[in-house]
């Protein structure tokens, strides 16, 4: 990161230069003014689509190029069906408006077409079996990969729940489920004494199991890594069952939040792990699959560095220095309102890098504003510089993610009832943390 980025906000001319360099790779001709006006997309002649994609998140940005650095030209909502004309570097080219746009493939159900192969003469066909709406499965087991997976009364279709369906309950992340049936990408499962349907997109195949002496099963190690999601996770001498420790079991030690663990085995919803020179068992319900954080875009990394450059400054002193930061003295309160600036500071940082289109001075406003702009909730392990952390009463910018250990920067309580910009290595590592990321 060039040092001058830390000292001043990016100028409009710098933004235009970056956009112009990027546009040479696009098939759509765009004209961008130096004042940041909307891009004009020239209608293009369509070719035959290569497939169809359904949006699987609540709001998905449409950009004018295949990458996060390209300009946002619109958005799609969950369940929207689009035709795909090209796939490039994890992005899909779609027909949007009078021209084309690009969306991130990972937030759709699009499957890349199989390469063409030369057919060889096959054996005579056997009589086909009649299809049934629900396909039985044979001892298939899956693990929940999202924070809370809805169990519904009827199956949906792909990533879309059935209209009017009822949510029986939610299943926590890390829960292992035995699939009783499958229909349209939904799994029939039982959990908490209730049988219903859950979306298969939010599960992953569980490792195969082997029978141990005594009739119990233990999953062999398979290089899977998990991150601790609670403040202090007990490591015990023997496995428990589900969320309940074994009676009389001994706690060897506690493992802090954000620790990355390699699973050596599994039994009854407990993981065998090594930590601090000890090998023991911990409850899988308080872990989540580890996903290496993706690399932040140039704008997001610059935003994180820009926020960090104000360390030690009070929010009161930054009024008039940090563009978009509002003077909240009219709100009164301690120190004339300058003690309530966390959302004000985060919003100003994001606006300086076109990562948010409006200004907000409270938590409810900035969270709803980010979701409307296209932000998605991600796990702590996936958080990257420039993302936003929020709790019910505070918000900060993600500055670093060191293997699941988060460092934040934001407007925090200082001396003399004044908030100042400081690092925070505590808040973002708590179990109730919520992270927002712009795809």
Rg for CA atoms: 25 Å
For the termini, the CA-CA separation is 21 Å
The profile of the biggest β sheet is: 6 strands, antiparallel
CATH architectural name of the largest domain: Alpha-Beta Complex
Uncertain segments are 1-46, 116-120, 125-132, 210-215, 332-337
- The pLDDT mean sits at 76
Provide the CATH top-level class of the largest domain.
Alpha Beta
List keywords for this structure.
five-stranded antiparallel beta sheet; 6 helices; SH3 type barrels; 439 residues; globular; mainly beta
Note the topology.
Layout: H1 3-7, H2 12-23, E1 30-31, E2 40-41, E3 51-54, E4 59-63, E5 72-77, E6 81-88, E7 91-96, E8 99-104, E9 140-144, E10 148-152, E11 167-172, E12 176-179, E13 181-183, E14 186-191, E15 194-199, E16 203-205, E17 210-211, E18 217-220, E19 225-228, E20 232-236, E21 251-256, E22 260-262, E23 265-267, E24 270-275, E25 278-283, E26 287-289, H3 298-308, H4 315-318, H5 342-352, H6 363-373, E27 376-378, E28 388-390, E29 395-402, E30 405-413, E31 419-424, E32 434-437
Antiparallel strand pairs: 1-2, 3-6, 4-5, 6-7, 7-8, 9-12, 9-16, 10-11, 13-14, 14-15, 17-18, 18-23, 19-22, 19-26, 20-21, 23-24, 24-25, 27-32, 28-29, 28-32, 29-30, 30-31
């Amino acid at each position: 990161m060039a040092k001058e980025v830390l000292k001043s906000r990016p100028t409009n001319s710098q933004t235009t230069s970056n956009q112009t360099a990027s546009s040479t790779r696009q098939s759509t001709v765009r004209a961008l003014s130096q004042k940041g006006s909307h891009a004009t997309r020239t209608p293009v002649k369509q070719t035959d689509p290569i497939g169809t994609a359904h949006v699987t998140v609540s709001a998905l940005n449409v950009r004018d190029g295949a990458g996060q650095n390209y300009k946002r030209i619109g958005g799609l909502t969950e369940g929207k069906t689009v035709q795909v004309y090209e796939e490039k570097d994890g992005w899909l080219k779609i027909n949007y408006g009078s021209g084309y746009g690009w969306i991130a493939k990972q937030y759709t159900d699009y499957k890349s077409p199989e390469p063409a192969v030369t057919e060889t003469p096959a054996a005579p066909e056997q009589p086909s079996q009649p299809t049934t709406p629900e396909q039985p499965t044979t001892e298939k087991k899956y693990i929940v990969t999202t924070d809370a997976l809805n169990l519904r009364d009827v199956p949906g279709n792909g990533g879309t729940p059935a209209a009017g369906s009822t949510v029986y309950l939610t299943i926590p992340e890390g829960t292992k489920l035995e699939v009783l049936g499958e229909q349209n990408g939904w799994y029939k499962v039982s959990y908490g004494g209730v049988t219903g349907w859950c979306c298969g997109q939010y599960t992953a195949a569980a490792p195969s199991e082997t029978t141990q002496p005594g009739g119990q099963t233990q999953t062999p190690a398979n290089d899977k890594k998990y991150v601790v999601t609670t403040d202090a996770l007990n490591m015990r001498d023997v496995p428990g069952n589900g969320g309940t420790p074994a009676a009389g079991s001994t706690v060897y030690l506690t493992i802090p939040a954000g620790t990355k663990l390699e699973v050596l085995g599994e039994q009854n919803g407990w993981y065998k792990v090594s930590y601090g020179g000890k090998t023991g068992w911990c409850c899988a319900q308080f872990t989540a699959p580890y996903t290496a954080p993706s690399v932040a875009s140039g704008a997001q990394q610059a935003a994180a560095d820009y926020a960090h450059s104000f360390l030690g400054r009070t929010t009161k002193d930054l009024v008039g220095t940090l563009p978009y930061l509002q003077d909240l003295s009219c709100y009164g309160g301690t120190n004339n309102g300058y003690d309530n600036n966390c959302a004000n500071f985060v919003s100003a940082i994001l606006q300086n890098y076109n990562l948010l289109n409006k200004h907000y001075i409270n938590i409810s406003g900035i969270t709803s504003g980010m979701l409307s702009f296209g932000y998605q909730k991600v796990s702590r392990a996936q958080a990257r510089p420039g993302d936003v952390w929020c709790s019910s009463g505070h918000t900060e910018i993600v500055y670093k993610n060191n293997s699941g250990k988060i460092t934040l920067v934001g407007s925090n309580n200082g001396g003399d009832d004044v908030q100042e910009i400081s690092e925070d290595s505590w808040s973002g590592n708590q179990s109730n943390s919520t992270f927002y990321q712009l795809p």
